[in-house]
Specification:
heterodimer; A: 287 residues; alpha/beta; 8-stranded parallel β-barrel; globular; disordered C terminus; B: mainly alpha; elongated
């Protein structure tokens, strides 16, 4: 599956149900649909009849020192049963501790102990969900002095040991590379291509001293260029446009997905066809 | 993972500090300060404190935006600055615990009641209660309404014992101030009228996917509350007789029930 999708946002519900846009798939924020009933679930049900769906969560908190929230996992599993997503993803981060939720994607110290902790929890998550999980790199604004490895090694080691897949957010690499002064190209070249299931693209804001992953702009030229590099280095993958704030008309978001499609086509024509290593990996190998 | 837990607890404390990371640091004890020392990498572009402040700002403003969406009329009533201060105090008292932002504003309606903002705006607590009822009804569980023909088929001798199951989205709001007018004014994008200090009863629910509301008199409010709490039809009639006219109680109760069925509030009857 290497198509081009957009995030499903409530501002577009009515228009989507009216015009059924030319888009390969939708990604939905899982938590928005972990509700008892009403319009959100009814809308998702209708859209899932026409488009493939990917579930993308923000609350797994895989790196938290708190115990895994099994009630959340069971709800997520139930939702996955209802919409039969292509895959289920969340972020390599922690979102809360001590029973409190910060509702943000916070960075972890990149240490062997934290790798062990996350790997152990990811295995539990994959056992509960009965599917291989997809883990996304986040934008970060701080690093820990205790870290003993770079972010790409942290992500790669966890993905290899937990046998999970990677959602590579190109914008997040770009943002974090600026914020921490690492080489985005080096990051791309050190991620295991065969484990990359999906790309994310989004807009960010330049705050002068740091880049802010705000998802409220079109994708910038530098991130499009980095996406083209990823296509060359890693290969074509399912690609999603994220837009979460100051959400424009549906057509504008679809146009960004079309642009990703054009860039992908152009890069692959220039460089010749490249085998997609994820094709051989079944999405739901444990189900 | 004690190191990780201590690190995350410390960061949580700093990120949620109401006046920013620097002020939060000044509140730490000696053990926490020792842990903080050298924890976060700063550089010439951004210090460790400034990097933590990025997260602190995101925390506050994400939650402010989320709760603002849940209580738009309350924002209009008390104003942006007062709402900002209210949420600052609210997050200190009720930092989010649920995994979903959907519940971040859940306790605001009770919190407002005891907040100083109510001295200036005594209807604020009632208004918050009404707005939260709409939030809850919006994504409450689905249910199929009872068809009136099912009621018509019930033998007269069974009616006394009948109990009714109501739609899961139904919320009964009773307030001391007439806040529905304020809510309606905001829906019409009008200036809010002053709220009167008059008791008001409103039911909020969903028909299919459509949110609905209807003001009630005290009689209906008492009867519907009783039905929700499991009262039989005979018990509802007795309540109606207490509140209203004894001779027409059964008739009035039947009329209320007919209205509830028409409004798709009743989803089942047992007994």
């Amino acid at each position: 599956m290497t198509g081009f999708g957009i995030g499903l946002r409530k501002q577009h519900y009515a228009e989507i149900l009216d015009v059924w846009p030319q888009i390969d798939w939708f990604e939905v924020i899982s938590e928005n649909f972990l509700v008892p009933g009403g319009r959100p679930l009814a809308t998702l049900e209708r859209i899932a009849e026409r488009y493939p769906i990917v579930l993308h969560g923000v609350s797994l908190s895989i790196g938290s020192a708190d115990p895994l929230n099994h009630a959340y996992l069971q709800q997520l599993k139930r939702l996955a049963g209802q919409v039969q997503p292509l895959w289920v993803s969340d972020h390599l981060c922690w979102t809360g501790v001590g029973g409190h939720n910060l509702h943000d994607l916070l960075p972890l110290p990149y240490t062997p102990n934290v790798v062990d902790h996350v790997v152990d929890r990811l295995r539990q998550v994959q056992d509960v969900l009965g599917r291989r999980f997809v883990l996304e790199n986040v934008s970060t604004y701080l690093e820990f002095n205790s870290s003993t490895m770079p972010e790409w090694e942290f992500l790669t080691t966890i993905a290899e040991r937990a046998d999970c897949e990677i959602l590579l957010d190109i914008n997040n690499i770009y943002v974090s590379a600026f914020n921490h002064g690492f080489d985005a190209q080096h990051y791309l070249r050190n991620v295991p291509a065969a484990r990359v299931r999906q790309y994310h693209l989004a807009g960010h804001s330049n705050r002068g001293t740091f880049l802010h992953d705000t998802h409220d702009h079109p994708v910038c030229d530098d991130v499009w260029a980095l996406y083209a590099d990823a296509l060359r280095v890693i290969g074509p993958r399912a690609t999603l446009i994220e837009w979460d704030d100051h959400i424009p008309p549906l057509a504008d978001v679809v146009a960004q997905a079309d642009k990703a499609r054009q860039i992908s086509r152009s890069v692959l024509q220039d460089d010749g066809p490249r085998r997609d290593p994820t094709v051989a990996v079944e999405t739901d190998h444990r189900a | 993972m004690t190191d990780l837990a201590a690190t995350q607890r410390l960061l949580w404390k700093l990120i949620t500090a109401p006046e920013g990371t620097q002020a939060g640091l000044e509140q730490l004890n000696a053990d926490e300060l020792a842990l903080y020392d050298g924890l976060v990498r700063g550089d010439g572009r951004l210090s460790a404190v400034e990097r933590l402040d990025v997260y602190a700002n995101m925390y506050f403003f994400r939650l402010l935006d989320c709760v603002r969406d849940d209580y738009p009329t309350l924002v209009q009533l008390i104003g942006d600055a007062a709402f900002h201060n209210l949420i600052t105090d609210y997050l200190l008292a009720h930092p989010p615990q649920h995994f979903s932002l959907r519940y971040a504003g859940e306790k605001l309606c009770s919190f407002v009641e005891s907040h100083p903002v109510c001295q200036l705006h005594p209807a604020a607590g009632d208004l918050a209660q009404l707005e939260w009822a709409f939030v809850e009804a919006f994504d409450a569980a689905d249910a199929t309404p009872l068809d009136v023909s099912e009621l018509a088929a019930i033998a007269p001798e069974r009616w006394g014992e009948l109990q009714f199951e109501l739609h899961p989205s139904l919320r009964l709001v009773s307030t001391e101030w007439s806040v529905l007018l304020l809510w309606e004014a905001r829906q019409g994008e009008e200036t809010l009228p002053p709220a009167a200090n008059e008791e008001q009863y409103v039911r909020v629910w969903r028909s299919g996917l459509r949110l609905r509301y209807r003001p009630m008199n005290r009689l209906e409010s008492v009867a519907l509350s009783a039905v929700r709490d499991g009262a039989s039809f005979a018990e509802v009639c007795a309540l109606v007789a207490e509140v209203s006219d004894e001779t027409t109680a059964a008739e009035q109760a039947a009329s209320l029930l007919a209205q509830w069925v028409t409004d798709e509030l009743v989803v089942a009857c047992v007994g």
